[in-house]
Amino acid sequence: MPTKQVCPRCGQDWVHPYRFIADGTPFSLCTECDSLWWLGEAVEAAHAKFLDDVVAERLGVEGNPWGDLVWPDVIEPAPDHGA
């Protein structure tokens, strides 16, 4: 069974497995501070990306990608990927 990991950026929540709905790309996410790590990437503060930036890039928009969208439109919790 995988070990839960506390977010190295905020220390306020666990890092959870998520995936993009469109293509199933997995990642790890702290739902408290929205820090994101790609699967296989070390879950360390220095490697964290900001969810909004990643989503905006994937959708091809600038700035806040959540204008007409909410998380369940774009991402969803994933089965534990052994992070």
Characterization of the model:
By secondary structure, this protein is of the alpha+beta class. The protein is built from 2 helices and 5 strands, in the order ββββααβ. The chain has a 5-stranded antiparallel β-sheet. It is globular and about 35 Å long. It starts with 14 loop residues before the first strand and ends in a 6-residue tail after the last strand.
One letter per element, helices H and strands E, the order comes to: EEEEHHE
Number of helices: 2
Total E-strand runs: 5
> What is the radius of gyration computed over CA atoms, rounded to a whole number of angstroms?
12 Å
Helix residue percentage: 10-25%
Overall average pLDDT = 93
Which regions have little confidence, pLDDT < 50, spanning 5+ residues?
none
Structural class: alpha+beta
| β-strand amount | 15-25%
Distance between the termini: 10 Å
| Shape assignment | globular
- The order of strands across the largest sheet is 4-3-2-1-5
Quick one: biggest sheet?
Answer: 5 strands, antiparallel
